[in-house]
Design goal:
Blueprint (H helix, E strand, L loop, with lengths): L1 H6 L8 H17 L8 H17 L2 H8 L1 H6 L7 H21 L9 H11 L10 H15 L1 H16 L1 H14 L15 H14 L8 E2 L4 E3 L2 E3 L4 E2 L4 H4 L42 H18 E5 L11 E3 L2 E3 L5 E5 L1
Antiparallel strand pairs: 1-4, 2-3, 5-8, 6-7
Helix pairs in contact: 2-8, 2-9, 3-6, 6-8, 8-9, 9-11, 9-13
Cofactor: heme
Protein name: Cytochrome P450 2A10-like
Keywords: Endoplasmic reticulum, Heme, Iron, Membrane, Metal-binding, Microsome, Monooxygenase, Oxidoreductase
Length: 339
């Protein structure tokens, strides 16, 4: 990841491309057991289809399809492209699975696909097993959706926020220098000793609120909740923004304020209303991986570079560009200067 930033040092650039490719390569290594060069044609194709799919899934027409499936099925519009994108992604994944099968060794799994194939082999006599080809493809698809677009968008938004608040950037860098230094790369074990950095990352997620609507859930039995009767089979869509911007839990909900996650002594403090990954049994599958990526990517960039804006800080707009059910940072360029 540092190489593209170093190449661009001193020159304005849009970080979208680099962040998206760096984050996606982490998922590729976990799932496929390999990383791709940024210009690899297969990799570029995969990211292009994922990007289009994410934009489509979070668009207003697609959200309408969740509420009025029968009507939206017959109406023309961009939401009709969804099946085509899904087919392209499933075909790509199926090709990678076939390559794995040809060199598969159940005693030496190399990645997620190998582990899933090993479990399929163990349960091949079980007719009700959840480990089959269709679930393998869908699970890999979910990992990519959970761990690519949302994470890269959060990082991109986070860098914009730090451009707006250079004093926060400086304080994170001071903590990096004190805990990690300059002679080794950050590791996940460092996070417990870096309360301010941890608070900044949590506040970025809270403030950014990339996906205000969690995936739809289906009520499994007749339920009574706070005076409401919710019949079995009802579709419920959690509105995460109602928690992330609740003034009862966050003193300044509309402002970026890392103190929301710090106590009086400067120690990290959890907040029960911080639910960017939703909650319960259907919490985001990629939560652990996403938190790891956010910490390691952000600390690695700030360990090695100062961020410089092309605008006066007061002119930097950190309000969201709302598109359908997703929130994106407004387009921007930045400069990085080696520390």
């Amino acid at each position: 990841m540092l190489s593209p930033f170093s190449t661009s040092a001193g020159h304005p650039f849009d970080p979208t491309f680099y962040l998206s490719h760096a984050v996606s390569n982490v998922i590729c290594f976990v799932v496929f057991g390999q990383r791709f060069e940024y210009e690899d044609k297969q990799f570029v194709f995969l990211l292009d289809v994922i990007n289009k799919s994410f934009r489509l899934v979070t668009s207003a027409p697609s959200q309408m399809k969740n509420f009025f499936p029968g009507l939206m099925r017959i109406l023309p519009g961009p939401h009709q492209e969804g099946p085509k994108y899904m087919k392209e992604l499933i075909n790509f994944i199926s090709q990678r699975v076939q390559i794995h099968r040809e060199s598969f060794d159940p005693n030496c799994p190399r990645d997620f696909i190998d582990c899933f194939l090993a479990k399929m082999e163990q349960e091949k006599e079980n007719p009700t097993s959840e480990f089959h080809n269709e679930n393998l493809a869908v699970t890999v698809l979910n990992l990519f959706f959970a761990g690519t677009e949302t994470v890269s968008t959060t990082l991109r938004y986070g860098l914009l926020i730090l451009l707006r608040y250079p004093e926060i950037e400086a304080k994170v860098q001071e903590e990096i220098d004190r805990v990690i230094g300059r002679n080794r790369s950050p590791s996940l074990e460092d996070r417990s000793q870096m309360p301010f950095t941890d608070a900044v990352i949590h506040e970025i997620q809270r403030f950014v609120d990339v996906s205000p609507l969690a995936p739809p859930h289906l009520v499994t039995c007749d339920t009574h909740f706070r005076g409401f009767s919710i019949p079995k089979g009802t579709t419920v869509v959690p509105f995460l923004s109602s928690c992330l911007h609740d003034p009862q839990h966050f003193q300044t909900p509309r402002k970026f304020n890392p103190q929301h996650f710090l106590d009086e002594r400067g120690s990290f403090r959890k907040n029960e209303a911080s639910l960017p990954f939703s909650t319960g049994k259907r919490v985001c599958l990629g939560e652990g991986l996403a938190r790891m990526e956010l910490f390691l990517f952000l600390t690695t960039v700030l360990q090695n570079f100062h961020l410089k804006s092309l605008q006066e800080r007061e002119e930097i707009d950190i309000s969201a560009d709302v598109r359908g059910s997703s929130k994106l940072p407004r387009p921007y360029n930045l400069c990085v200067v080696p520390r």
